[in-house]
Amino acid sequence: MESMTLSHADPAPLPLKGRPREFCTDAALAAALRVFWSKGYEGASLADLTDAMGITRPSLYAAFGNKEALFHKALDLYEAEKLAYTRQALEQPTARGVAECFMRGALAMQTSQCGDPKGCLGVISAMPCGAEADSIKADVIARRASSQAALVERFERAKAEGDLPAHVDVTGLTCYLYALLQGLAVQAGSGASRADLERLVETSLAIWPTR
């Protein structure tokens, strides 16, 4: 009688820990950003978001949390990618250079041909907020305050270095610059032409307190 050799069977595969995601979270977040940017926080419905992202509601909740959490992540992406010019502006050697980099950066973003919506995500998401979106408004305001504080600090340094006249109110100058930037964004969202926006930038630079 022939002896039988025992063969070792392949080990059983380990069970998967949940179903793998079938979408790119980065692409989905970028799509959500465009929806929020176009419609604001309250104007963007879950159906708008899932349609644009190409995912189901359960997938949205699993990957990003709820709508509010998704917006915060979209706002992080907006600041990192679309507002990179604001960080570059703070590194300019003069106060006028800072202001010019801010305004020309905003102009370039608002007139980009890459298909991004116009206007400012922070402005359109904060202005119409109802009580259910108070946390969104508070986050937008806190982020803006942090950015303005960095600009005040930069202008204070310019004043100490003699780059800005001693009589200049740097807080008022910062508020003035932010009002210009917000006005530029609102006008861009309302259909202003590039020539109109460039005129706003050039006029603002012409009346800047330093050359």
UniProtKB/TrEMBL annotation:
A Pfam family matched in the record: TetR_N
Keyword Zinc tagged: no
Key words of the record: DNA-binding, Transcription, Transcription regulation
Gene3D superfamilies the record matches: Homeodomain-like, Tetracycline Repressor, domain 2
Source superkingdom: Bacteria
InterPro entries: DNA-bd_HTH_TetR-type_CS, Homeodomain-like_sf, HTH_TetR, Tet_transcr_reg_TetR-rel_C_sf
Positions of the DNA-binding region: 45-64
An example Gene Ontology molecular-function term: DNA binding
Domain (HTH tetR-type) ranges: 22-82
Name of this chain's protein: TetR family transcriptional regulator
